[in-house]
Amino acid sequence: MDHFNYRDGVLFAEDVSVADIARAVGTPVYIYSTATLKRHFQLFDDALAGMPHLVCFAVKANSNVAVLKTLGDLGAGMDVVSVGEYLRAKAAGVPGERIVFSGIGKTREEIRTTLLGGIRQFNVESEPELQAISDIASELGLIAPVAVRVNPDVDAHTHAKIATGKSENKFGIPISRAQAVYAFAASLPGIQVVGIDVHIGSQLTDLAPFRAAYQKVAELTEVLRAEGHTISRLDLGGGLGIPYRRDNSAPPLPSEYGAMVRETLGHLDVEIEIEPGRLIAGNAGLLVSRVIYVKEGEDRRFLIVDAAMNDLIRPAMYEAHHDIIPVDESLAPSTVYDVVGPVCETGDTFARGRAMAPLNAGELVAFRSAGAYGAVMASEYNSRPLVPEVLVNGDQFAVIRPRPSYEEMIARDTIPAWL
Ligand code: LLP
């Protein structure tokens, strides 16, 4: 459920008309709903009720500081994968003890900065990384809390580019080597083992792969405890999928996911951490765009809109489907379009053969499910300024990242003295 609904045929974000925002801020523009963000966080928090837990928002999904603060103020933790994300979480007021640091390539500088700034735990993906964290922590006179990310070798049944839990993927250490790696971790002076971490992929629409992975983690917990390691936290990663289409069967709900977590891990007396990104932010955001032209091709009709692949890359990169709806809900979807952006590549196509209401130049459309992996993956390709972001809260809205002017965009380049 989200908070983007038609009222008398006009699309609203909570209590604000989407067309009013588009008029005030221009297009393309991302619009996020505070109520939806909060609701989705709450669903996960409730789903794990009764077990000690921390819901850590995966900052990579949407890293706007206002979005992070909206969630952080509710008590959310943050899962970060770079010092940039860490500093954003800090800027949103989230304390280090609620921030976990994931990722296979943490640099020494990133480890140092986050250790000094305060960190809940490093999710470590290799022995060289364990060694580096221990060395830096020792230099600083600190002890680094660590969970080792294990790769359970399960098939997440999702798009190949976002599956992470098979042995051929670059992530984690093979679960078969976990005992040796934990023994190594325990031997290092700057490391304190606190738990186990696992993340098998994104946009999972079935609980079975999660269940298979978590069962392996449960077994490993017992084995490692028997060997004397303290396993007081299990970080279960993110990955629960969202409905991208209104018309098909929805993925499992957070409550169902929570019940499965309780079943597989509830007996272990551990604190559960989860790292959802897409489910919290995805359907809390729209990308609103204006039709520039309707172009009649030889056998296709192109709806040319002012958003492009640089603003929302998911269709070009993963063949992802986003529902595209008119901002003025008028007629039935009787016209078939290829929805394309202005960028000079055929890949700049949002949808092919999509049945939509008849649209004219100047009218607005909204891409649904664009709140996660939308603005964060935007670029300035074709020298298109980065798309702005707006946050709605009830009947108010605020620009939470303005559109840079062309002057600002160009002024970042500098001309060397020899030119
Ligand atoms: N934790 C870790 C360690 C991750 O690598 C990810 C996502 C998450 C949590 C959050 O997963 P989520 O709950 O959002 O599924 N750009 C792609 C998605 C990449 C996901 C990468 N890792 C897309 O647009 O579909």
From TrEMBL:
Q: Report the EC code(s) recorded for this entry.
A: 4.1.1.20
| Residue numbers bearing the N6-(pyridoxal phosphate)lysine modification | K60
Q: Where is the active site?
A: C344
Q: Name one Pfam family in it.
A: Orn_DAP_Arg_deC
The cofactors required by this protein are: pyridoxal 5'-phosphate
InterPro entries registered for this protein in UniProt: Ala_racemase/Decarboxylase_C, DAP_deCOOHase_LysA, De-COase2_C, De-COase2_CS, De-COase2_N, De-COase2_pyr-phos_BS, Orn/DAP/Arg_de-COase, PLP-binding_barrel
GO molecular function per UniProt: diaminopimelate decarboxylase activity; pyridoxal phosphate binding
Q: Where is the Orn/DAP/Arg decarboxylase 2 N-terminal domain?
A: 35-281
* Family according to the record: Belongs to the Orn/Lys/Arg decarboxylase class-II family. LysA subfamily.
Assembly mode: Homodimer.
Q: Which protein, by its recorded name, is this? A: Diaminopimelate decarboxylase
Q: Which gene encodes it?
A: lysA
